[in-house]
Fold these 4 entries.
Entry 1:
Amino acid sequence: MCAEQRTGRQSTTHCPYCALQCSTVLSGERGGVAVRPSADFPVNRGGLCQKGWTAPAVLGAPDRLLTPLVRGADGELAPAGWDEALDLVAGRLREIRARHGSDAVGVFGGGGLTNEKAYTLGKFARVALGTSQIDYNGRFCMSSAAAATTAAFGLDRGLPFPVTDLDGAEVILLAGANPAETMPPLMRHLEGADLVVVDPRRTRTAERAALHLRPAPGTDLALALGLLHLAVTEGLVDKEYVDARTAGFDAAWESCLPWWPERVEEVTGVPADDLRAAVRMLGGARRAYVLTGRGAEQHSKGSDTVAAFVNLALALGLPGREGSGFGTLTGQGNGQGGREMGQKADQLPGYRSLTDPADRAHVAAVWGVDADTLPGPGRSAYELLDALGGAEGPRALLVFGANPVVSAPRAAHVTERLEGLDLLVVADFVPSETAALADVVLPVAQWAEEEGTLTSLEGRVLRRRAHLSPPPGVRTDLEVLHALAVRLGQSADRFPTRPEEVFDELRRASAGGRADYSGISYARLDAGEALHWPCPADGDNGGGPSGDGGGSGHPGTPRPFLDRFAHPDGRARFAAVEHRPPAREPDEDFPLYGTTGRVLAQYQSGAQTRRVPELVAAAPEAVVEMHPDTARRFGLADGQLAEIGSAHGTARARVRLTRTVRADTVFVPFHFPGAARANLFTGDALDPRSRMPEFKVSAVRVRPVGERP
């Protein structure tokens, strides 16, 4: 490690939370690790959010897992040695595969795993287990945006430009994104722009907007179609750009032709004059961006909704121009890299396809196996969880870096599926709600105890550096996968445990793929180079997979679409999409919209942040935000415990009265466990393309706890 990166007990690394990957400096020994932001990293520029400032507290969590746990005959988890635990897991896996076939074992990964771990997990599933049944929680995060932008641009990069490009924007439309709470340091880059915020709630981001559009949940697609309709009828389409750089405009225009402003107002509740104002702001700006977030994407039509916002950006001539563009705000820390490295059900490393013979042959050659032995695509995340324990589904599941008991839709149903398995193995560093159900729990290293790389929301590959060694008795995920693979009959050298060795193999596997990392190396990253993929190897100049990757080679691609888009003809594609309602709309039995999301002090399923006293003090429990008029209508008072029920299940949360939410809508954050799980009432409707669950809209009723229907 370079001296400037680790001097004494100081280490430069990155925050363990969101995809901004703010640069931080750690100092001190275990039990007293302090964090401060790096002043020179362009994304956070010396700032951190509340979660980043308190991140070291999780390293010393009182209930940190320090030894393997095995469930005994009495039904209780008890400490065990590593050999005992691993032998048990490997033996049970062999038995289940022999009895039910390779697909009887499933693997569930996470968008917070490093690139090295995500890569190895996908390889382990397909080579050591021979199973097609692998997916990850990023399916719940970025899959709709990935499907839409791949179709539009030929490439899935969350932001196909550096975050710092946003500094010069005049107008930014944020559709379903609340970065003031989910990634606060990003707001520094939005200060110079007039914001147009699309959100049914008046969030902290919306409070800073020049214009706030408040559609009813589930109507974002109608709103986006209406905005394109207005762009055409107001004469704001960049015809020269559309003719030169795109295809399919006429079909897209035909699909939005019926969505005149007054009809959009009727469906969405957004005034027609506000729609006109939004389009004129975007169309009149010299530098403008359209950005989407989970609010637009986590729907059974999320891919089409993102496609409709892409259509708007293309019509205005924004993508592929320096100073303007379209992007999606990736959520999880390695949400971008996690889906590129092969833990997604249909993908191989380098964003290669499991159904493409050339892609299969390339990766198989790197792995030293016959391409015919690689399984095909498996089930998507929710479909995998839903199938657990069923006649045709997996009988065993290995979970790395995820907590589906809290994060999955229809949470009670998913919990029942997990409880019905023959074998559940969870690798984690704290006893999450999913780990509490496991037959075997394997304690693994945390972010500040491991080396590796992550890929931020702007496609920049970053180095994670170890500041501490893992506690005695704790292993890294790479060591766990190596040990299991060897016990399952793989050669020891096929599953290396050194992250840099894994990354060098990853580079070879990605070479020539859409997400090409082959020109990136630890040496180049440690030398301070800012490298965005695609970054192919440049011959024999030291940047290729066989070189040392020193300070030469391909410079990376921070803005991949300036000259052409990634389709063979270089053109971006418009998409003809049609609005449709959510899977279930409010009715007499369930008269309200229920929507879910995040709050400033908590992160994802809360397994980490709920162990930080300062964050618990800031957001100690689940709340249901509702308008005072809604509370009066259903006999509820501020601070009262309420039930939020749908056709799928019921959650409990404390009422918080606020005028920031629509009177037809209630909002519940999804970070909390037990009866407070918001995902108890979310349903299982899936986007037909991305297989994204419909987290953002449910038909619900609210009532005081204990009150009968």
Entry 2:
Amino acid sequence: MALPARISVEDFFGAPERAGATISPDGTRIAYLAPWKDRLNVWVQDLDPAGGFDGEPRCVTADETRSVQSYQWTDDPRWLLYLQDSGGDENWHLFRVDLDAAEPTAVDLTPFPGARVVDFEPSRGRPGRMTVSLNARDAAEFDLHELDVATGELTMLAQSSGAGEAWFQGREGELFSISLTAEGDFEVSRRDPETGDLHPVLVHEGADYPVGVFPTQVTPDGTGMWIGSSRGTDRTRLVRVDLSTGEETEVDSHPSFDIDLRSQVFPTFPPPLIRDRRGELLGVRYTGGRQVVHALDPHFAEVLAELEKLSEGDLSAVSCDDSGRRWVVGFTHDRDPGVTWFYDHSTGESRLLFRPHPHLDPEAMAPMTPVTITARDGLEMPSYLTLPVGVEPENLPMVLMVHGGPWARDNWGFNGSAQLWANRGYAVLQVNFRGSSGFGKAHMKAAIGEFAGKMHDDLIDAVDWAAAQGYADPERVAILGGSYGGYAALVGAAFTPDRFAAAVDVVGISDLANFMRTQPAFVRPSLVNNWYRYVGDPAVPEQEADMLARSPISRVDRITAPLMVVQGANDARVVKAESDNIVASVRERGVDVEYLVFDDEGHAIVNTENLITMFGAIDRFLSRHLGGR
């Protein structure tokens, strides 16, 4: 047996040929992301009656600086909207594209320096208009505006009364606020149109929702809201809240799984609610080891049964035309990423539109296998094991990949990083340690007070499990992660220096107190149910001391394993000082540390050449210290 041919970093992390396709409201065109001048931009191409491509594709955006990551059709198929920031600073501006123009004509609809759009959606009952949450007036406060897409005119509908408050529309222009109470609870209130007074409609205990209640989606008629609720249960289910009475009615649930919460932290994941163009609810996603979709609409149930025949993967992006007849769908798959199909429900015809990375042979990719690992205190941790193809899975060097958040999760599907390491001969283990979302409240709350404690014990227990199963050589294990995962990598190097042969920290926290003090003003109110509750308040001396004791910067003298640190200079979440300080401190002691800084990136490394540079450097680093090819 032997490993398959060595696959280059460029092949894994080069730009997709096409990705992120959606169908236009009239069903005659698709839009998708594809390279233009080494950046992903939005392209549009006509569809023929059978769902094939018709004519030449046309690039309709012209961003040469940073790849476009998402876009959205409006109700008028003339216009497309997309978000873009500057160098990864996450100050998202909303841009409009005129598809009738001969050349790309992106217009910045929110041209306010330092401001960001956090949400935009069609304005209820008002074609051609969107509601937009924007902090142009005050960086800490998000006001609700209505945008006329064609003219670009912005009209303020509701002004925020303070950080942590947001607004949305109900029926016939009714306005509602979403805010955190002084106790940190999640509250929805109706504004009296005559007096402006707010009247609470519902309150949910904030401690049960570290990252906030999700989803929160107003029903198309504006009389209710669909929310993900765990009230009275460990699992998150879908309920409908009557916006007049506050009464909650269960809409759907799964006996074992939470609603799919991944897009709450990573908006590029598909949303948990599958809705049609009018906003009507078609289905709900749940995620355990794999995804499960519940169809709630009879027509969609018929469509779903046909879509699921197209791929062995999990249904990912879903879009349909206004009639619900023509569909464009993508699939998540561990070995064949992003395969995208056209399906016509009126004829039953389907057509493969594209594979984003056609040069990657699925047979050469490594399967990702769901496994359950039991922590030393009995907590069950749903995890994923990826073993290299073509070699005996015995006594292998291993990469322990730690997800971010920590209120996020690892999931089944194609992971370019895991596939790269498997191709190099490493076993790869991803662990949904305590604190990970999507496995119930008890699993998440088990992380309170356990940063660099039981959360790290979980990772050590996972390494011991892999060694006991015979998969991993315990002397050749590297720990690698981004954001919280970067912090976990630093904890691994500083708190258990004898357990890891190498550590890779990407935009990770080295000083918990400094991290919290440097959060943007608009973020700070939302920290009450996550960082303050789980870690502490740096303004309280005793808690600050405990935070320092749980920070890698306090144990620099114990770091002996080779360390690599990666940082985006414009990171607004984990500021560059977090990496500068740990690197300087480690270097002072003469420990091998590599430091890679991208001046045009933020918390997420996005641009293709930077991804290739980063993973190429990590590849060489791991090869030197783990012995992979």
Entry 3:
Amino acid sequence: MSIPQSFIQELLSRVDVVDIVGRYVQLKKGGANFMGLCPFHGEKSPSFTVSPSKQFFHCFGCGKNGNAIGFLMEHAGMGFVEAVQELANQCGLQVPQDDISPAERQRQAQQKQKAESLSDLLEKAGESYCKHLRGAPKAIEYLKKRGVSGEVCKRFGLGYAPAGWHGLASVFPEYDSPQLEEAGLVIVSEEDNRRYDRFRDRLMFPIRNVKGECIGFGGRVFGDEKPKYLNSPETPVFHKGRELYGLFEARTALRDMGYALVTEGYMDVVALAQLGFANAVATLGTACTPEHLQKLFRFTEAVVFSFDGDGAGRRAARKALDAALPLATDTRSIKFLFLPSEHDPDTFIREFGTDAFARYVGDATPLSRFLIEAASEGCDLGQTEGRARMASNARPLWSLLPDGALKRQLLSEIATLAQLNSQDLTDIWAQETARTAPIARRAPAAPVHQQAPDWDAPPSNWDNAPDWAEPSAPAQHAYQPQGSGGNWAGRKEFGRPRKPWGKKGEDWNPPQLGPRPTPVSREDQAARLLMCHMEFMEEMTHEDFDALARCNESHAPLFRWLEAQFTESGPRSWALLREQLQGAACEPLASKLMNGAHAQPEGEVDELRKELRGTLNLILVDHLKREEGKALKEIATDPTAARRYIEFQERRKKLSVIISTTS
């Protein structure tokens, strides 16, 4: 989104940086400026100044400085556009957007209003849960048993959802409001259309975004009931694949302690905060995603994943490794902490103390070592075959790393373990790639002198056909077999004319053939599946989105539009998408796909999900082939082109194997 520079200047002239910073930092007047403790690093004496005349903040301790927009980006973890919009809202200004249509601007305003309305409902529900906690002995006893103080409960806004079916009816007089269902607070039965509270008899954990707005809840049972944890469903304001529990509460601690500790559950975060590790956050019942890490890297350059030491913990760590590799730049630190299988962070600290846990964190496995361990799993490095297999396993992991010193050093380590030097290993990969590169198969062109067989031509004397032939019969259906001689259609056997086709006493009336329907392309099918089941996007990778965004000139804008809608507001129905498409450049294509043949695929959701995955794999293969071609052309001038060619081809080969085994 393009925001005019003139508007940014006007916005900064209207806001007061002292007022903006003062909402987060306690400031005291000190001469012409205001002073306070820096929110970006731990300090005991104030070195953080805010200048009302220059509309600027500066810390003499850590060097952080900037204007009101920069402060929101640094302290609240907002993006530039988000920070500008936040300040504009406070000033009552409308952010101009030169690159969108009035219809799109109106749609965005409606979405924003809707999100604010849903967040208000969730906030009100959270206040009610907090009040109920005071009169819930069972919940209070559980928290005391876990060592959670009242102060920490207040900080995280913990509450209690009563056991009744309609506890929220006393909070919301309009209990039948559709917004309560849309916010995930109320469930409507499909059988009898009755309403009831989603969360009942559970300890409630409010989930907040980086601005502190309530966007959902997690509820924990007190016994052995299933599910143990219940999350809010996906809503226009809540997407569990992109949110981290405790991130809002941990912002300051992330900077003070210098790293983020990613755990596996709500109670881990709360208990760790109680025990002195307020920098803990947790994923919401999902594997760690690149979106999670991107949010964390707004606040810190170091992340430590904490997992159990059992098999499940190792598998979760392996998924986290895949998500972390593309973001592992040379300036970032990513580590993996494996606790003994009988402990989680809470129990470990209570048994061994905070110092022991801090040492465990300090000794956590670096990303580079964990990558080597993952590649070496099941490989005997004492044997040639084992070393070769390790190098093969390491290749797809190594290729995910961004180019830099870390990636090049790891290449050297992999080569050393394989008992090769880096150049030899690269050459071997390149030679193998070139040797196995598929040669385009072209059908030989037909010789110029080759003529069509005689029977492809209509009979030259069709005009002299017997009386039983229909004058209007299409000529392409009449032909004269080679060697029949003369007027075959007019030959007589046993004194009567012989028809060239059909049974005795029947005329052959071929059906009128209309134009052949346009085949359904992979892009058509992918677009239809995503427009009908937008929730499938939650399982797509960055590679999937990138391939769709660059597939072809006709479909790419539609895929980019769908990705933007999903990122902004989550999954939506086709009925809602159809309204939002009005005025968009990709509306004609979307309408054509959803109203034409094969529109709106039917079938079991799991089968459609598999169909989409298969279609995406085929699109990815085409995308990788194009990238291979580009890399081949650049090999002579770009030293990195050969490596990229190898990476693209290896990825394509693996996809081809997957396609062949699932088709």
Entry 4:
Amino acid sequence: MERRSAISVLFLALSSLALLAAESDKNFELNLKDAVRYAIDNNREVMRARLELVKSNTDYLKNEGKYSLRALAGADIQENKFPYNQNNLFSGTKTQTNNYSAGIDKLFTTGTYFKLEVKQTRFDSNAFEDPLKTPAGFGALGIPPLFTDSINLTIQQDLLKNAFGYKDRNIETMLENQSLILKDQLEEQVSGKVINALVDYWNYNVKDSSYQTFEQLLKNTKTVRDLTIRKQGLGLSEGFEVNQWNALLAQVEGQMAQAEAEREEAKRKLIRSLNLPENTVFSKTTPLSEELPKNINYEADINYAYLHRADFKSIARKKENAELSLKNAKNDALPTLKAAGTYGYQAQNLQGGSTNYTEGKNGVFTGSYPVMQGSIDMSYPIGDSGVKAGLRDAEIQKRQVSLEEEDLTKSVADDVRTRIDILKASYKVMENAKKTEDEAKKYYAGVLRSFQQGRFNALTVKNSLDTLVQDQLALVRAKVDYNINLHRYYVSKNALFEEYGVDRAKLLPEGFQK
């Protein structure tokens, strides 16, 4: 297969353009960067992981929702009926109180609660309205419904345990860190699933190469069989040698049929993996990457992994969360102290609710009748075992994260070193497989020439041909193994997307990108 300086093309004919190219008998090829992008956009497992990525900040956004401005409205209607007696002479035997309210409220990150509210109370009583039950001279005391309206501003503030939103802001930071931890983990999962999709292509590549190898083997076997037949006619070989090559030919035909079935199975899996139409036609198999990255360096790659790997980046955020949890646990041991105050204006009349806002002398907006209210509430936990447990757990979490950081620092370095060692080893195996295959090819060509000249028997030709086939299959396997290890190396330091120019911000599915 032809060598290239760039990383080899992984899969072919992956879009409508590919289908068009196949129909016109022209090879349509994607470079690896485009192939990775195609896997991200079309592989169903990758798509599911990308959709899960959208939900990584759900808890953070839900927490942010409590700081949203809210519209308020309410209605409360109460009606009472009593028997007529001296006690109800002045209050009436039937009263009705209607309370209506509307307004807005908001909680700020400072722990300040704000509410602006408009209220109306309609009170109606039948006192002194029934002439049969009203004492003489009291009829003038009967009045129509009474309307009381007010506009009030209420402010409430935490002063101690959650002083000016201290604890809530810590929780907000912790949730944001947790969202980023989950986001990094999901991005790492996406890169792993992209590799899985590419492995499906490489598997197809192996099966296709195997089929081509057995196809060539069949051709070579027929050639040797025909040579043996001609030599038999010249008296240079025996009839049983022809029988041997006929048997070998039948064996190769069976192997070729098996290789074709395995190739079709791998092709169907690849089509399913890449979410392609069932009738997709792939063009010629293209070479895999055969070059070792030039910038491999133990220390540089380990430092890169420390900066970019999801698990290691998460440690810093976990440490911050542990510190914030400890601070909140200490804060929970403090008393709860809240101060609240309400200030507003009200008005009252018998004409109707709207009059309280339009009347220029005694209306609400004249400020003649203020409403003022203040309160302070305090509570203190005495011997609260829950507070003690929270402090204990926060201390334990802090120590656990420190231990995790120490272990992860070593394991990340070991993982990167191991991946580099395996990559170099697989590269060496691939290079040796090339030499072995080349030597086997030359040996077979020499044996075949000597066989034509009568200096070697059929068994030697058969053995050399078997060796060549096995070496050719081993070379394909070695190339695939090298490519798999190459991409695992990228994943070990979380550089797959950077290697192929994929913007992480665009991993979110279309319609969910910010």
